[in-house]
């Protein structure tokens, strides 16, 4: 029963024109970005290893990765868990995941190309652990969270950026180019956490600060990657180059930039009882 704030409706209102700077058509957006996204995230495998370690997976556990993308987490999870089901609605992202599996000789990941909202609960078995990492592109949030809960035997985890301002000036720079599409609302992680509570799921929440270096061979390479990844218009290239050159510093292999963002890990256990 909603209280003064209806979190479910608030989510719909803040996303009614899509998710952040992505196209409203999320499938074609991620199909287009798949290869570049994969190249970028695979350069930072240590971050994924840290996230996977925080799940405390056991070798006999099965994992369902909702919006698995190119397998940034599914690949390292498959090395510690018994098996992983990687669900994603983008065929382009799953094609990269399969390529990553081949490269690492991994055989215990099953890929399902489907949107989370189109998956019926009885279409898939329960998994010990269900995770979603920056992948809840859904309008019916209550239903999406309830599905995560009912398909998790032991625990569920949501990794999510804490706001759209992911680091020092970049989001502001992007906003100059991208019209603000939705009404400003609370950060997504707050809506998810509160809606879970309204559903009777009292989750834990942990904030994590990430600091890492992004490396490029040259300013040209950095500019071309950023133009492509963030759909920056050609006439904004000089502004982008100026923005990047103020942040990039020379290092042994070319240029690099220190980046920072905060993320939240929202997690809950099923049937957790503490007895005295
Ligand atoms: C930012 S990427 C994150 C990928 C991966 N979870 C990671 O942490 O690297 C978002 C992914 O979630 C998928 N996604 C978003 N909403 C989805 C939905 N409703 N159903 C299935 N996949 C979804 C997208 O297709 C994309 O591959």
Question: What's a concise summary of this model?
Answer:
The protein is of the alpha/beta class and 276 residues long.
Walk me through the structure.
The chain has 276 residues and is an alpha/beta fold. The chain has one domain: Vaccinia Virus protein VP39 (Rossmann fold). It is 38% helix and 24% strand. It has 10 helices and 8 strands. It has helices at 7-14, 26-42, 45-53, 74-78, 91-104, 141-151, 170-177, 188-198, 219-229, 237-247; strands spanning 62-66, 83-88, 109-113, 127-133, 152-161, 204-216, 249-251, 254-269. Strands 1, 2, 3, 4, 5, 6, 7 and 8 form an 8-stranded mixed sheet that branches. α5 links the parallel β2 (83-88) and β3 (109-113). α1 runs antiparallel to α8. The chain is globular and about 60 Å long. It starts with 6 loop residues before the first helix and ends in a 7-residue tail after the last strand. The structure holds S-adenosylmethionine (SAM). S-adenosylmethionine binds at residues 26, 30, 41, 67-69, 72-73, 88-90, 93, 115-117, 133-135, 137-138.
């Amino acid at each position: 029963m909603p209280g003064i704030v209806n979190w479910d409706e608030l989510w719909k209102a803040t996303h009614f024109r899509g998710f952040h700077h992505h196209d409203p058509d999320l499938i074609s957006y991620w199909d287009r970005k798949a290869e570049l996204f994969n190249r970028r995230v695979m350069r930072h495998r240590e971050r994924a290893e840290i996230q996977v370690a925080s799940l405390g997976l056991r070798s006999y556990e099965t994992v369902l990765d909702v919006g698995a993308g190119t397998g940034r987490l599914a690949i390292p999870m498959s090395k510690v868990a018994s098996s992983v089901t990687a669900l994603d609605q983008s065929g382009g992202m799953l094609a990269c995941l399969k390529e990553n599996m081949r490269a690492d000789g991994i055989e215990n990941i099953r890929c399902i190309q489907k949107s989370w909202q189109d998956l019926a609960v009885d279409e898939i078995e329960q998994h010990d652990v269900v995770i979603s990492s920056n992948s809840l592109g859904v309008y019916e949030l209550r239903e999406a969270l309830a599905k995560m809960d009912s398909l998790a035997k032991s625990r569920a985890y949501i990794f999510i950026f804490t706001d759209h301002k992911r680091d020092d000036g970049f989001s502001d720079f992007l906003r100059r180019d991208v019209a603000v599409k939705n009404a400003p609302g609370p950060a997504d992680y707050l809506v998810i956490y509160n809606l879970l509570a309204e559903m009777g799921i009292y989750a834990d929440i942990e904030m994590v600060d990430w600091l890492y270096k992004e490396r490029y061979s040259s300013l040209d390479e950095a500019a071309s990657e950023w133009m492509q990844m963030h759909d920056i218009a050609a006439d904004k290239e000089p502004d982008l180059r100026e923005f990047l050159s103020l942040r990039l510093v020379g290092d042994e292999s070319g240029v690099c930039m220190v980046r920072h963002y905060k993320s939240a890990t929202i997690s809950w256990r099923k049937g957790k009882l503490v007895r005295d």
